[in-house]
């Protein structure tokens, strides 16, 4: 039996939803009287909020656990949380004696109780995925930065053959409309000027994402709304229309296509085709001509031929992405694709990824260069590396740096004078 920890540190890996979950776990622990450990301070409790989207994610998580042992042989209380915790369950305790408790992403509202159980000598595990809202058990939102995440939907029913999300996050479930609006109001009251609505398939929100966006847009003090991640099959006409009508909805859409080859999309169990995806992009741009499009791509999916990959390059050229994430296919244990015949050789995947990323990088730089000479509103969110320099986001989610006396959370107008691959530089207009 040990004393309850008084200090904690939450380390989140992976997607924005993990960042949101990490923030909520920190708020839970803070509400119990614990204090977030300062930079460089040894925390008495460390929560590793893990991601399972990449190959060997579990091995990386256990490596991270091992690094928590101190030089004198002691260690903090260790909580394995997130999607690796969900996938590993009780096996995590067997694999590492350093892990004191295991909590899945649908059970983290129980974290304070589980910490108390661990202090009492138990090694609790909770990876249940009940179809109820964990959010009811969470404390009220506390002070936040100028940009805040807000989860509105969790889980996935799409069952793409390469993806573990349906197994680690469960079935699609949407939070009650009134609860989301109330949390958005609390975030704005706490200082947020921009809110990003989150979900594994955020545009599958049961109440209609467009209806939710329009309601949140009426909150005084909120200036920007974003959402991620979307599925092409759920880009309904009403949501597309909202892009042209809701001024606070920023001109940025992350819409993963994964491949430009219809046979590969079918093997992935994606419910769209290259043609239907391009048609959706065309509709969105008709509603909001200045919108920036972002995407996701997987190269080297089982049985992907050179011709299939060329189709991916064609769809990239057709869309013209402002940014995109691209990855080599990596088998996730338990997913159908992991046991498919026709696994692509690593060296072939490497070559294809380099070619794809070169095209995407050129498009991203071209998009940034098209902003030079324009004046853009920038929401300051952090200090730059130079004295007097501040950094913020443009409406198109570009990082913009400029010398200004404005503080974090302020909106400034910047005339863009410099375009870099990953950022813009300018001066106050």
Total count of helical runs of at least 4 residues: 13
Q: What is the rounded distance between the termini?
A: 61 Å
What general outline do the C-alpha atoms trace? globular
Low-confidence stretches: none
**CATH topological fold name of the domain at 7-126:** Rossmann fold
Secondary structure: number of strands: 19
Portion of residues within helices? 25-40%
Query: Strand sequence of the main sheet, in spatial order?
Result: 2-1-3-4-5-6
Q: Identify the CATH architecture of the domain at 7-126.
A: 3-Layer(aba) Sandwich
Short recap of the structure:
By secondary structure, this protein is of the alpha/beta class.
What does this structure look like?
The protein has 429 residues and is α/β, with parallel strands linked by helices. Helix content is 32%, strand content 22%. Helix 8 runs parallel beside helix 9 (237-245), helix 9 (237-245) runs parallel beside helix 11 (274-287) and helix 12 (306-319) packs parallel to helix 13 (346-369). The strands form five sheets. Strands 2-1-3-4-5-6 form a six-stranded parallel beta sheet, with helices on both faces. A five-stranded mixed barrel has the order 15-16-17-19-18. It is built from 13 helices and 19 strands. The model has no long low-confidence stretch (mean pLDDT 93). The chain has helices at residues 16-31, 57-66, 82-88, 91-95, 111-119, 165-168, 177-189, 209-216, 237-245, 262-267, 274-287, 306-319, 346-369; strands spanning 7-12, 35-36, 45-50, 77-81, 101-103, 125-126, 147-151, 153-154, 173-174, 194-198, 224-228, 252-254, 292-299, 323-328, 375-383, 389-393, 399-403, 411-419, 423-428. Among the domains are: 7-126, Methylthiotransferase, N-terminal domain (Rossmann fold, 3-Layer(aba) Sandwich); 140-250, Transcription Regulator spoIIAA, CATH 3.30.750; 375-428, OB fold (Dihydrolipoamide Acetyltransferase, E2P), CATH 2.40.50.
């Amino acid at each position: 039996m040990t004393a309850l920890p008084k200090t904690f540190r939450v380390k989140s890996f992976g997607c924005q939803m993990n960042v949101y979950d990490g923030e909520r776990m920190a708020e839970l622990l803070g509400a119990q009287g614990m204090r977030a450990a300062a930079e460089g301070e040894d925390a008495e409790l460390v929560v590793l909020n893990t991601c399972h989207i990449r190959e060997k994610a579990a091995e990386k998580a256990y490596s991270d656990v091992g690094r928590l042992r101190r030089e004198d042989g002691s260690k903090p209380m260790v909580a394995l949380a997130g999607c690796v915790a969900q996938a590993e369950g009780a096996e995590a305790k067997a694999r590492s004696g350093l892990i004191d408790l295991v909590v899945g992403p649908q059970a983290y509202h129980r974290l304070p109780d589980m910490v108390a159980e661990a202090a009492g000598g138990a090694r609790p595990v909770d990876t249940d995925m009940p179809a109820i809202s964990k959010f009811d058990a969470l404390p009220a939102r506390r002070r936040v930065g100028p940009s805040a995440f807000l989860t509105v939907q969790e889980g996935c029913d799409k069952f793409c053959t390469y993806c573990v999300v349906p197994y680690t996050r469960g079935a699609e479930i949407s939070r009650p409309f009134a609860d989301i609006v109330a949390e958005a109001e609390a975030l704005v009251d706490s200082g947020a000027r921009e809110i990003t609505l989150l979900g594994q398939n955020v545009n599958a929100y049961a109440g209609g994402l467009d209806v939710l966006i329009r309601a949140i847009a009426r909150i005084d003090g909120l200036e920007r709304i974003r959402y991620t991640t979307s599925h092409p099959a759920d880009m309904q006409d009403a949501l597309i229309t909202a892009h042209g009508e809701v001024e606070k909805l920023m001109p940025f859409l992350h819409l993963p296509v994964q491949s430009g080859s219809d046979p590969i999309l079918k093997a992935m169990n994606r419910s769209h085709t290259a043609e239907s995806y391009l048609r959706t992009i065309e509709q969105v741009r008709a509603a909001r001509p200045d919108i920036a499009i972002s995407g996701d791509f997987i190269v080297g999916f089982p049985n992907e031929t050179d011709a299939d990959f060329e189709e991916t390059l064609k769809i990239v050229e057709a869309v013209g992405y402002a940014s995109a994430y691209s990855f080599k296919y990596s088998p996730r244990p338990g997913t159908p694709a992991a046991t498919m015949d026709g696994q692509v050789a690593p060296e072939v995947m490497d070559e294809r990824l380099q070619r794809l990323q070169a095209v995407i990088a050129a498009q991203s730089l071209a998009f940034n260069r098209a902003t030079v000479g324009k004046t853009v509103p920038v929401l300051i969110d952090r200090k730059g590396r130079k004295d007097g320099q501040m950094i913020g986001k443009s409406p198109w989610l570009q990082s913009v740096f400029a010398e200004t006396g404005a503080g974090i959370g302020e909106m400034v107008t910047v005339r863009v004078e410099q375009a870099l691959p990953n950022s813009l530089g300018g001066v106050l207009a």
